[in-house]
Amino acid sequence: MNKIEQLPSRIKFIWLIHVFGNLLLLVIGMVLLEFAIHYWKLADWLIYPALVLALLIISFELLSIPYRYRFWQYKITNDSVEIQSGFIFRDRVAIPIARVQNVTLSAGPVLQWQKPEKVVVATASSSHKIDGLKDDTARRLRDQIMHLALEARDE
Amino acid sequence: MNKIMNKNSRLHPLAFFVFLYNNLKRYLLFIIFLFFEIIGDRHSGLLLYGSLILLLIFSFIDALFRYIFFAYRFDENSLTIDSGVFVRHHEHIPFNKIQTIQHKQWFFLQPFGLESLSIETAGHNDGKAEAILPVIPLKISNFIEKLNQQSRLEDVSSEVVPQQAKNKKIDSNYQINFHDLSKYALTSFGIIPTLLGFVGFFSQVDDYLPQSIKKPVESTINSLVAQEFLIILILILLFSLLASYLTTVQKYYHFTLIKSEHKLTTIRGFFQRYVVSLPLKKIQAVFVKQSILRQWLKLATVETIVASDAGKNEKDAGDLVILPVIEKQQLFQQVQKFISYFPKQMPKLTHLPTFQSWYFIRNAILVCLLPIVALIYFYHFWGCFSLLIVPLVISLGYYKSRHMAFAIIPGGRYLFQSGRFWTNELYLIQQNKIQSVSYRQTIWMARKHLVHLSISIRHANSNHEVQIRYLPEKEARRIYNCYLNKSNT
């Protein structure tokens, strides 16, 4: 698999669920703010800028999903992991597998339900996240790194 | 020597004074505050004197208890330290887990043959990776060091006598001469903190001094003519210069660097002799620093960036100064003696095209624009003085852009140069110490084929990024691909 790959398309759905999660948090925040305004007798109009801000955040998150998906790419070869993201702000990072100290696969409730796993590749100094990988790809990456780690290597 | 092993030992009684000193140092600010309150005659005296005396008594008793409850013992394989009054700590350190051992010796401990030992292990639980034996006999600290080295040689049969295990072979060494040290001290910017200290001190004193002292002083100052005032200013300046000079000289006094077997050892200090050794393979990068002043005098400082905290007592952890000052001409030859992969001479650097300076200058101006606008808006006329920082910032940006450069050296080595705050920084990094390389650009940079290239290396226990900004895409690709392909083989 030496070609550039996209995240599994299911990740868009997962991101969508995350946006709804954030929406819920913001709604709770709004309710709390409303209470605070009544309780401490703050200026009534404070709620409006907060509402506008919340709406902006949510719509930005919603609209950015296809963009994020389109430009989020990764490439795993026998010796290296490359992760690329963004179009307006492009970021591309190369991590030789020999430098990788550990790989963490994790999945929150949403990811568990939808199967992909979040992968964090950590070197001795930094860590890099791949938002979601199909579970077989994730395991393969982990095994590959474990295999290399077992071979002798300079520190 | 076996009789000192497996036995609970107490620290030397002088350790009590070290504990006391540490306690007093901890409360120093509070003591100074109390002192000024007392001479300032602000509050009823009894309370203040009372708390000062209580504080002193507390420090004294605390130090005494610390001393009494501190014990250590060791055998061939490990060192155990028991400490703590209410909460007892039993620290157990296997020798083969020790990363570095640092020896510190205050001048007054020398006649007693005592020193302090800091032991650093690899465990990084909340920065408490250190065990300290405050005052122990040299005999014992050397013995511990020997045992440690022995365990490092490892798997040699366990009956090896320590003397045999260590036939110290010195590969190269360097000692600073006083002339160079003076030059280094004179060109350090240590004068700025000293001056600030002065200003701070006087502004504090002004608040606290009682009228009886303040009056005559004030009237003398008022009667001074401009000329005399100038003389006082110059005196203060000279004094700060002297203070910063002496501090630096005492810090790097008799600085010696020794390379033996697989480690570097630095020895320095006048009042406190400070010995650190560092395994060569812990070095993540070699870092050459030159402030603009030292660039004119053709002097440079060489540091190493280290994966452990060996340089803790330097300004920031993870840097260990290996050559405080060296003539630029000799730099490459000298460093090469100690760090074998350092190039023998300055490789040819690829600089940014001249036009790129514009981006650095623009960014620098943009950053300072907001505070300037705010200042002018709020303070009108006086706010306009903030415009004076614009030329300063422009020169910073220009300096930075002119110093951005890189070179790829055969043998998987990379040289990166950048300029920050009128200081030239040169990093030499080996392929296998680069943790990752990242390649960033915005859509606007993509149109102009420019890239920010960041190189991540490990620094102490965290990440350090060396960034070459606004690099032409072609060059950035070259480094990026070179890095990826090299690591493939």
From TrEMBL, chain A:
The chain crosses the membrane at residues 12-33, 45-65. Coiled coil: none annotated. Residues 69-145 form the YdbS-like PH domain. InterPro entries: YdbS-like_PH (IPR005182). The keyword Cell division does not apply. Keywords: Membrane, Transmembrane, Transmembrane helix. Pfam families: bPH_2 (PF03703). It comes from the Bacteria. PANTHER family: UPF0699 TRANSMEMBRANE PROTEIN YDBS, UPF0699 TRANSMEMBRANE PROTEIN YDBT. This is YdbS-like PH domain-containing protein. It comes from Oenococcus oeni AWRIB429.
